[in-house]
Amino acid sequence: MTEPTVTVVLIDDEKNIRRVVRFALEAEGMAVFEASTGLQGLAQAATRRPDLVVADLSLPDMDGTEMIRELRAWSTVPVIVLSGRSREEDKVKALDAGADDYLTKPFGLPELMARIRAHLRRQARGGRSVLSQVRFGTITLDLGERRVVRGTETVHLSPIEYRLLSALARHPGRVLTHHQLFQEVWGPARADNFHYLRIYMGHLRQKLECDPAQPEHIVTESGVGYRLIGVEDLPAESAE
């Protein structure tokens, strides 16, 4: 029998949730290690060195956001939150603490598995050489040349627009909170003003989306932030 190539640590105090998610993960050939408390989850993550962590926020011994923050002190493993907390502030706190994604219970297994596969692909890419280009739809972003092309035409972006786009492109599929984007683009010395973000995201969509009113790639996570979806990596050797 072939040994599983992907290891997942599943942290949730609800036994039925662990059973359902474990069954789905094992059906994909993944090895799953369970934990019902935050401390057990941190111990499993330290021992197993997983490729991905799926964690609840409501744990019996500690808040899941604090657990993620402790995990982030020594690990960059992708973390997907699976929580019954649906308030925007809970999502923002978890993502700002270091979570990569957030799914609210009740959830659909197909969506969970799709997000897991997306984060595993991104994690796998991190072990290879740095990619110089990314593509989404008809847009090609050349990170080395700092150039954006739509089809065959160069798109002129302002410096702030470019920094926003490149921040999203470096974390494809991942939710970046308003605060994270603001800090990365404007820097820690500037006070957060999310109105600026909405304005510049609107500019990017006008320049890059086929239908800015119904964006396919630069999508809003309501009250939380933005993510870039549908991204294809272009290694330097295959770039045209």
UniProtKB/TrEMBL annotation:
<keyword id="KW-0238">DNA-binding</keyword>
<dbReference type="GO" id="GO:0042802">
    <property type="term" value="F:identical protein binding"/>
</dbReference>
<dbReference type="InterPro" id="IPR036388">
    <property type="entry name" value="WH-like_DNA-bd_sf"/>
</dbReference>
<feature type="modified residue" description="4-aspartylphosphate">
    <location>
        <position position="56"/>
    </location>
</feature>
<keyword id="KW-0597">Phosphoprotein</keyword>
<feature type="domain" description="Response regulatory">
    <location>
        <begin position="7"/>
        <end position="120"/>
    </location>
</feature>
<keyword id="KW-0902">Two-component regulatory system</keyword>
<dbReference type="InterPro" id="IPR011006">
    <property type="entry name" value="CheY-like_superfamily"/>
</dbReference>
<dbReference type="GO" id="GO:0000987">
    <property type="term" value="F:cis-regulatory region sequence-specific DNA binding"/>
</dbReference>
<keyword id="KW-0805">Transcription regulation</keyword>
<dbReference type="Pfam" id="PF00072">
    <property type="entry name" value="Response_reg"/>
</dbReference>
<keyword id="KW-0963">Cytoplasm</keyword>
<dbReference type="InterPro" id="IPR001867">
    <property type="entry name" value="OmpR/PhoB-type_DNA-bd"/>
</dbReference>
<dbReference type="InterPro" id="IPR039420">
    <property type="entry name" value="WalR-like"/>
</dbReference>
<dbReference type="GO" id="GO:0000156">
    <property type="term" value="F:phosphorelay response regulator activity"/>
</dbReference>
<keyword id="KW-0804">Transcription</keyword>
<feature type="DNA-binding region" description="OmpR/PhoB-type">
    <location>
        <begin position="131"/>
        <end position="230"/>
    </location>
</feature>
<dbReference type="GO" id="GO:0005829">
    <property type="term" value="C:cytosol"/>
</dbReference>
<dbReference type="Pfam" id="PF00486">
    <property type="entry name" value="Trans_reg_C"/>
</dbReference>
<dbReference type="GO" id="GO:0045893">
    <property type="term" value="P:positive regulation of DNA-templated transcription"/>
</dbReference>
<feature type="domain" description="OmpR/PhoB-type">
    <location>
        <begin position="131"/>
        <end position="230"/>
    </location>
</feature>
<dbReference type="InterPro" id="IPR001789">
    <property type="entry name" value="Sig_transdc_resp-reg_receiver"/>
</dbReference>
<dbReference type="GO" id="GO:0032993">
    <property type="term" value="C:protein-DNA complex"/>
</dbReference>
<protein>
    <submittedName>
        <fullName>Two-component system, OmpR family, KDP operon response regulator KdpE</fullName>
    </submittedName>
</protein>
